[in-house]
């Protein structure tokens, strides 16, 4: 999938999220004040921050796919990880203020019994947010966008938040009004947990996290299957935005020409990029492989030991 298509799909997901969140926020603000529900008002505030988070996500997505320039030789792909951290901070601040508001209500004993309309709005919110989570998560994974995936997890936490709000409202209407602000505290805890998880994932991405063992094995196999490659001496890969950058050392016959060694390296790079998804670039270093003169076999063990320090 080319970068233009990734941006188109990312914009589409962001637009859908904006429309859904705006509708939910307006309906919850109206219902929260009309039905005197702290949990619904807290949930509406959460939807408001979701709108801002989605705008940040789309802005970061556009930056991430800008071409390299004089100040950013490797491109701007890590902008997505930076945006994921911003989204995480927005989510955590939202969770904190919602929880603090609910705690203050309990301390002040300002407990009202919410109206029945609040239950129906919460139920509608659960369905809408579940749809939004599935939709944005599918698109985020299909285009390899960490920020859109992070936003989808935010929508998933909103499903649990709205469910907690609905349970609290129902309990308050059954004669336990304190359950409404308690539900607000539960909503706060769910939101905080989601924000912390997204923040940790963003940090790992910025720290050049390696792909899983299966992907590493596939990269190594593609290199070893290249004609002229005797062995892979060293292999490293790191996440760079939605894709991976690979550095590896290969062992080739020491008696071939520089041009032949260069061609082997070029073919190795092409094989890896063509056979494995989401590889942005491959840097291949060529090591000479020494022969054991007695039986003309390649001494790969010593070769690997000697070249591992290069």
Structural notes for this entry:
The protein is mostly helical and 310 residues long. It has two domains: 3-206, Alpha-lytic protease prodomain-like; 213-307, 2-Layer Sandwich (Alpha-Beta Plaits). The chain has helices at 3-35, 38-64, 79-108, 117-142, 146-173, 179-206, 213-224, 258-275, 300-307; strands at 231-240, 243-253, 279-289, 291-292, 297-298. Strands 1-2-3 form a three-stranded mixed sheet. A hairpin with a 2-residue loop joins strand 1 (231-240) and strand 2 (243-253). The longest helix is centred in the N-terminal third of the chain and has 33 residues, at 3-35. The chain crosses the membrane at residues 16-42, 48-65, 86-103, 115-136. Belongs to the cation diffusion facilitator (CDF) transporter (TC 2.A.4) family. It holds the Pfam family ZT_dimer.
């Amino acid at each position: 999938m080319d970068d233009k298509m990734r941006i188109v799909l990312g914009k589409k997901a962001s637009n859908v999220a904006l429309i859904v969140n705006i509708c939910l926020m307006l309906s919850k603000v109206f219902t929260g004040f009309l039905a005197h529900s702290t949990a619904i008002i807290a949930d509406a505030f959460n939807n408001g921050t979701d709108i801002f988070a989605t705008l940040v996500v789309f802005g970061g997505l556009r930056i991430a796919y800008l071409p390299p320039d004089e100040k950013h030789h490797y491109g701007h792909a890590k902008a997505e990880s930076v945006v994921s951290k911003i989204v995480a901070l927005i989510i955590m601040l939202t969770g904190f203020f919602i929880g603090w508001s609910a705690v203050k209500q309990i301390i002040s004993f300002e407990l009202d019994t919410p109206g029945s309309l609040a239950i129906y709005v919460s139920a509608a919110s659960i369905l809408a947010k579940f749809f939004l989570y599935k939709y944005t998560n599918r698109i985020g994974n299909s285009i390899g966008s960490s920020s859109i995936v992070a936003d989808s997890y935010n929508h998933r936490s909103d499903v649990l938040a709205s469910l907690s709000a609905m349970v609290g409202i129902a309990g308050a209407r059954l004669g336990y009004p304190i359950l409404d602000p308690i539900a607000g505290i539960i909503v706060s805890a769910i939101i905080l947990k989601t924000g912390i998880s997204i923040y940790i994932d963003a940090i790992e991405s910025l720290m050049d996290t390696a792909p899983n063992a299966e992907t590493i094995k596939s990269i190594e196999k593609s290199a070893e299957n290249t004609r002229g490659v005797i062995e892979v001496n060293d292999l490293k890969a790191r996440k760079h935005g939605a894709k991976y950058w690979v550095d590896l050392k290969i062992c080739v016959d020491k008696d071939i020409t520089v041009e032949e060694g260069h061609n082997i390296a070029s073919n190795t790079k092409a094989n890896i990029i063509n056979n494995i998804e989401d590889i942005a670039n491959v840097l291949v270093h060529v090591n000479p492989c020494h022969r054991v003169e007695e039986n003309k076999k390649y001494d790969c063990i010593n070769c690997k030991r000697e070249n591992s320090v290069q």
